[in-house]
Input
Amino acid sequence: MDLDFSPGENAFREEVRQFVNDGLPPHIRHKVMNGIHLDRDDHVLWQRTLHQRGWGGVGWPREFGGPGWTPTELYIFEEECAKGGAPRLISFGLKMIAPVLMVFGSPEQQARYLPKIMSAEEWWCQGYSEPGAGSDLASLKTRAELVKSSAGDHYLVNGQKTWTTLGQYADWIFCLVRTDPEAKPQRGISFLLIDMKSPGVTVRPIITLDGAHEVNEVWLEDVRVPVANRIGEENQGWTYAKFLLGHERTNIAGIGIAKRELARLKRIAAAEGRLDEALFAARVAQLEIDLMALEITNLRVLSAEGAHQAPGPEASILKIKGTEIQQAIAELMMQAVGSAALPVGQTGVGPDYAANLGAGYCNLRKLSIFGGSNEIQKNIISQMIMGL
Amino acid sequence: MDLDFSPGENAFREEVRQFVNDGLPPHIRHKVMNGIHLDRDDHVLWQRTLHQRGWGGVGWPREFGGPGWTPTELYIFEEECAKGGAPRLISFGLKMIAPVLMVFGSPEQQARYLPKIMSAEEWWCQGYSEPGAGSDLASLKTRAELVKSSAGDHYLVNGQKTWTTLGQYADWIFCLVRTDPEAKPQRGISFLLIDMKSPGVTVRPIITLDGAHEVNEVWLEDVRVPVANRIGEENQGWTYAKFLLGHERTNIAGIGIAKRELARLKRIAAAEGRLDEALFAARVAQLEIDLMALEITNLRVLSAEGAHQAPGPEASILKIKGTEIQQAIAELMMQAVGSAALPVGQTGVGPDYAANLGAGYCNLRKLSIFGGSNEIQKNIISQMIMGL
Amino acid sequence: MNFDFNEDQRALADTVRRFVAKDYGFERRRAIRDSASGWSRAVWQELAELGVLAVGVGEGHGGLGYGPLETGLVMNAFGAGLLLEPYLAAAVVAPALIRRATSADFQDQWLPRIATGDSIVVFAHQDGRGEAVRAIDGKLSGRKTVVTHADCADLLLVSARAADGGVRLFALAPAAPGVTLRGYPTLDGQRAADLLLDQATATEVGAGDTANNATQAIDAALDIGLAALCAEAIGIMEATVAATVDYLKTRRQFGQPIGRFQALQHRMADMLLHQEQSRSMSYLAAMQCTNPDQKLRQRTLSAAKVTIGQACRFIAQNAVQLHGGMGMTDELILSHWFKRLTAIEMSFGDTDFHLQRFAAQLSREAQAA
Amino acid sequence: MNFDFNEDQRALADTVRRFVAKDYGFERRRAIRDSASGWSRAVWQELAELGVLAVGVGEGHGGLGYGPLETGLVMNAFGAGLLLEPYLAAAVVAPALIRRATSADFQDQWLPRIATGDSIVVFAHQDGRGEAVRAIDGKLSGRKTVVTHADCADLLLVSARAADGGVRLFALAPAAPGVTLRGYPTLDGQRAADLLLDQATATEVGAGDTANNATQAIDAALDIGLAALCAEAIGIMEATVAATVDYLKTRRQFGQPIGRFQALQHRMADMLLHQEQSRSMSYLAAMQCTNPDQKLRQRTLSAAKVTIGQACRFIAQNAVQLHGGMGMTDELILSHWFKRLTAIEMSFGDTDFHLQRFAAQLSREAQAA
Output
């Protein structure tokens, strides 16, 4: 057993840190460090910056233009980016559809889509959830009917997707659709790539409790999707979907983000004099301790998974604990400033750092809901790991 | 709305307090105040003391020789007894079988059994749970076969009861037995009164994790029980059992006991200097606050129930919160003295008050298990109160 | 002892409940919230007509002369509606303060206007950090911060430290020279303001015992406000818990209503426990908030705020969680209940403040025993 | 970075695990516990033969020269068996202290005997309240309290405050004049003793840097002990969680295994979370417990003890709860795991002690930043 990173890994960490330090535009860092919403340009700019460095295909193997990092290097990369104030990666393209394309896509599909994900020329979003199909994804109802035509066979897609994160920025959406309504729920689903500019695609914002516009409804009305835009075989979409859900779970603990936010909490608490209160200091201490433990747990899972495997049910442990810690940090930051957190988004009232804490707390309630609610994760742990 | 007790109730409280103060033997008070196990004689002596005062039939109506108190007076009585260091009432007779006898027993049964409960001449215990039937009581397997005989019809009872609290002291056991094995689980059960001296009754101690002997297994092998010892009708036992379970739930919150133990916690914590620690003081404060709230909640439930009703599903709220508070107090007392709690039952090592804290903590784990586990109580709340 | 309300009290609560159901729907509230002022004087007049603005004013001044119990019933009934208008500030705290801290003349002048809704008086107490308001020669300078509803006040009552170190109470017109009000929306969609005072001319309004030190009167008025806030919280909790139960009964996943899942059932049971313990403490707070024994009063109110603050957090967070994504949407009133419950926890001293105040008193007493 | 153990390490753990499974069953343990001494020298000799008593002794003294990782593996493997013999005190803490705090002669004399099991040396450190042990002219007076396994020691090492205020280390024969050992069982079925010293003649054993102040060496040895205790806790947690999973799979109520009830499933998931977080911290504790940077070492160890202490409570309480009445019985080993987990939480500084130590350091650093 050896809990230290190798000299090579430490050098890599230093390299990433330096790159983030030098390459990350200060206005983006400022936003990230202070919990201010990023816009599309911020994300794109950072992705292009990475791409120019040859790091556009984060997490990708070399054969598809990625840097070919080990899981540990990827972990280090994401941790240093988060700590340095870089935006989260635009995961819908990089971490969700890209792995699916690499394994199940045709060479033509790979060549068409992957480079533009890396270069941030095309923004992807996810069309999984539906109003009636959240945790119970397999009950989805969006239908795709195959239409034979001399202009090329295509699907006619009708239905509604929801909780489409940053769908308002997206050029493409990958969708689960039902192609065989007679089959059992998990059969008869296909996996389509749909151009958001197609006639019949409508994006409607969902405003969340923090006043932000992060998620959307996507309505699909008689949308024509060429058969060539289908991943793999018809009615086999559930297989690809499950594969994708596995990959979505890399870096699910968000250690780097939690470390950055914990440091912010400590700065704020110190500035507010709250660390002199034994009760408050103990709460901060508890979170730091939980995070120390989670970091090791994350490294253990990483090391057990080996090189190219998708995360197993152990990732559920990381999801639960990671989101709980992030939520608790946001809650404690808000508590630290007390009623100064009430004037939301107001500068010049309380200290500047107080302005976004209320919205931040509200926004992060999503963490235990999205990406498989923490209740679903506990089902997975008890059933898949413990066999109950 | 008026949260004050009436002048009459306050006078009654004073009367009880005075009586406990004067009438409770000091060696019993000492044991109760310091968490030391009581023996049979302690319980009997206290019950006889009450009986001499005319208060033997606590909670009973006047027609059966009880003092005919209102539910509020009963509440006050139990609170003052607990705070004054009196033993818990021997509930198996007074609060469990007695109400059943009063409502469903024959006049002969009432005359035979009730007076000796009041005078503590006969000790009762409960034969409900079986090794395979705990929370799922209706799955009980103990069988009673009706045997016609010239010497008088009787049942032949075979089976095993368990978790029989203080069964080692008991003269009588009231038992649920299956008289019709063909019927659905809740039908075909009868309610028998069995003399513990009957041939074929064996009591075997169960030692619990605190080293105490509080509970027992009761084995019944070809035990002859006269038909006259059956309550009500054959195969209607479930009705009587449910009635009894309702009555068992009076004073389920244990406010008086919790107040007494909280006061002990504060004395110990002060002696240990732990109240100077903000963290520890906040924990004690939290418990005192929870108890303040529970006391009002208890009075609300009491007042909503009216005079002679058995507690409804709201009693589940009292059970959960009451047991949680008592367990937390015991835990915090143990924590207050730290490693001085390790030498169990040793005097002259740490301070005297430390000697029983470890065993007390262990013993009270039972509170959330027995009397309908807290998980069962949550089922009741969500299903019976909230309709889920 | 009894926990029932009398006929008058039930009628009062019904009046407010009907108003919320009929005239203060979610859509109207949204329109008001999105308006420039963020509140509605029209609503204020409707409330005046219902008589509820007179609850906190004595009969001698045209009010109803009700106590904290009736105030609590009104606040409780407003709960689910998330009233944006300054009821707590202007119809509860202000008259309570005026009755305790101001001269008879001042009372005669303002209390009737409060009862009729003609004037909105707001008390500004919390000093800005390092900018405490001081009174020098009848002029006030300094900052009051996050004063709820200060920007809709016709008159401001301002606490200020005098040269002799005592706390005095002053009345101030918002339009007076040297007064700057910076209004803004708060997390819960209500309004608050920072009040910047630069040599603002104000009238001292203290009377009798409070002429030299208004601290006790201020504490007493704020304690009445705190009890009222607790009652509001219960109303929101009830609505939140009930809506979540309904959602669990109708929302289906994996072939059954999600309310059949035991883990969610137990969460709901925990929410109900919090709600009922909070309700108990809200009753106790109403009964004790006017107790002249300050120690006992503060002990009870701190206990109530701790219980209710923790319940606010627990119920709000879990209601959103159990609603899943839907709970996160601005479109559902649930998310607005969430935010108000969150804001309530932070108001009138947060849970930690009150837990520590309670603990400090407990430690002193236990160590003295 | 890797989390794998090498072949030697795995073999060592297997040896102990086999011993527990084969030779230290619940019945044998019960007989030992109920014996007059409460432990078994025969078992001690068996352990010596297995070589595990030599783990903490350097190769120069006939030991295996292993580190905290190997010690942790042994302790972890002992966990489920609830060893009553003084392994932690005599085979971990004592040699660690002797190596750091005593003269070469003393080491040469005692370390080989520890490795072979011929001598049991126990360190007595915790002073009785108001009865701190003081050394005056080489005579010790005062009381050490709740010294685990002191009553089975062949030699006692005793910390004492000297006239110059420094802490010194002394060796003492239990049978020496002025020494009274009062042994008793502890909550977890193990043994401890109070050590009463009245002008007891003792030999100072400090060497080099520690001659004047043994505090650092004592801290270092106790930190090694704490890391070992953490590893033991993980072993018990694993056994407890696994037994509870098994119970939930077999125990039926309402027509199905109770493990099908979602509320219990989620409780088990929470228990697993505690266990895995604890395991992580136990690894970190093993890696850091010999770090010469005392600040970092204590920070890590406190974090580990907090995580593990909380897990001890959570897992122990819920395992009993989920076992229902059965979990309360002395007959099931589960209740003994419960008690040992409870005792571990209270040993080497309880959760509160370590949380506050960690918090104090955090506050200092954050405020300095």
